[in-house]
Amino acid sequence: MSELEQQIIGIISSAGDSKGKAFEALRKVKEGDYEGARALMEESRKIDLEAHKIQTKLIQSEMDPDAEKPEINLLMVHAQDHYMTSQLARDLIETLIEVFETKEGGK
């Protein structure tokens, strides 16, 4: 497996882990455990940063006229799809936590 493929798999893996933590946080909300939900969302954000760092490195390579350009392929598109989906899920779940917490007087 090439370095690029490893980086792409890193994005997919981090994005999946981040999204998983966010949905786990939503389950905590269903149990009324807002503190646990917020802790899981913080874990989700930290995991997401790993995917973001890899993505940023690939984008910088793409922009650097002296660097070898990363090959755009289906695997990279798939990774970007996973990353964007995990970000959307996390953002939406953060908002849901706020809504439920406010509605139930948990804040």
Automatic annotation (TrEMBL):
Keywords associated with the record: Magnesium, Metal-binding, Phosphotransferase system, Sugar transport, Transferase, Transport
GO molecular function: metal ion binding; transferase activity
GO biological process terms on file: phosphoenolpyruvate-dependent sugar phosphotransferase system
Residue numbers carrying Phosphohistidine: 78
Cofactor comment: Binds 1 Mg(2+) ion per trimer.
Cofactors required: Mg(2+)
Residues bound to Mg(2+): 81
Listed CDD domains: PTS_IIA_lac (cd00215)
Active site, UniProt feature: 78 (tele-phosphohistidine intermediate)
The protein's name in its UniProt record: PTS lactose transporter subunit IIA
UniProt lineage: Bacteria, Bacillati, Bacillota, Erysipelotrichia, Erysipelotrichales
